[in-house]
Fold this sequence. Notes:
The chain has 167 residues and is α+β, with helices and mostly antiparallel strands.
Amino acid sequence: xxxxxxxxxxxxxxxxxxxxxxxxxxxxxxxxxxxxxxxxxxxxxxxxxxxxxxxxxxxxxxxxxxxxxxxxxxxxxxxxxxxxxxxxxxxxxxxxxxxxxxxxxxxxxxxxxxxxxxxxxxxxxxxxxxxxxxxxxxxxxxxxxxxxxxxxxxxxxxxxxxxxxxx
Length: 167
């Protein structure tokens, strides 16, 4: 670890810019050479290059959902039921996850700040940005058919969606 990169310094960097999106905070930490104090370099999590989409300007929400250190970590009971990129309003048909799944937690990141709604019988909505700002769980509706998942974002806004089964 480099000298002077303690957690207090990282906290000061991030807290001094409270309106800076999470992704910019991560970039600041990477450029400053800081790594988490509790993680040795050989234990650092390596994010595959396809997880970040510089050409689209936003981050795969699965990175946050799969990281136990993230505030947005999801205790999933299986593989994602959906993990898709798209543009504008879109409807997907996805296989129903097996038991013990009783719901799906969705996260979305967008190429531009926007409002979104995700519907799977019930809905979850909120603001969308370059990194996911929130997550929402929707119960799996009764039945045996595939699930219908609708993403509603403004036309021209690209998004990255992940839905993880939960119990």
